[in-house]
Recover the amino acids of this structure.
């Protein structure tokens, strides 16, 4: 009886969908993400912050390299055979202290790099989610009044194999990508403050 019930449900499924007369649209979410002016602005700010972090780390590395040269010089001075025992002890003590400073500086660089990497990564993830939420909201607001029952993202891939989830789509399906991009960029700031929006930069990556 149970198997018969399942068979009947499966047999009726195509009829149910056919009667529903679903309207399906598709969108390339990766393209919409890339061409959204907010995405470009976020990427620009993240790149600026990345450059600032790189400069900070490079300054710390320069200090480390200078300190390393001092350690080498103190080490050579401590090995001078002409030094009196007391002077040799002083040089050796200074060498060991500077070596500890060098070691501490190395750890400081590694810790700071990890901090900056995490901060940048967290901000990237946060901004990525915020932008996707904004795009999803626009899609939702657009699709209902337009009469669509389902909107499918053609840029989605399977998490395991990386293969596109949509293996085939009919040319009859309506692609709303251009419409959504237009709505997303309707409030974009202009190049001069008035007139038409500034020319978008070339896409640099897709939403995941």
């Amino acid at each position: 009886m149970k198997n018969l019930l399942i068979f009947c449900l499966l047999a009726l499924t195509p009829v149910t969908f056919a009667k529903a007369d679903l309207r399906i649209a598709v969108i390339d979410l990766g393209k919409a993400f890339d061409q959204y002016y907010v995405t470009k602005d976020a990427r620009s700010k993240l790149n600026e912050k990345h450059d600032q972090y790189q400069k900070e780390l490079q300054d710390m590395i320069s200090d480390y390299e200078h300190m390393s040269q001092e350690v080498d010089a103190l080490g050579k001075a401590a090995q001078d055979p002409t030094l009196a025992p007391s002077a040799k002890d002083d040089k050796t003590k200074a060498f060991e202290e500077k070596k500890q400073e060098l070691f501490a500086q190395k750890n400081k660089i590694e810790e700071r790099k990890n901090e900056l990497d995490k901060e940048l990564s967290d901000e990237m993830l946060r901004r990525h989610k915020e932008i996707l939420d904004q795009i999803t909201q626009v899609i939702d607001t657009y699709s209902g009044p337009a009469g669509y029952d389902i909107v499918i993202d053609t840029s989605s891939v399977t998490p395991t194999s990386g293969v596109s989830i949509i293996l085939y789509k009919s040319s009859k399906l309506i692609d709303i990508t251009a419409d959504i991009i237009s709505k997303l960029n309707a409030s974009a700031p202009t190049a001069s403050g008035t007139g038409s929006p500034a020319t978008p930069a070339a896409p640099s990556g897709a939403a995941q």
Notes: The domain at 19-184 is CATH 3.30.910.20 (Protein Binding, DinI Protein; Chain A). Helices lie at 2-20, 29-35, 37-78, 85-146, 177-184. Confidence is low (pLDDT under 50) at residues 1-19, 192-208. The CA atoms of residues 165 and 173 lie 16 Å apart.
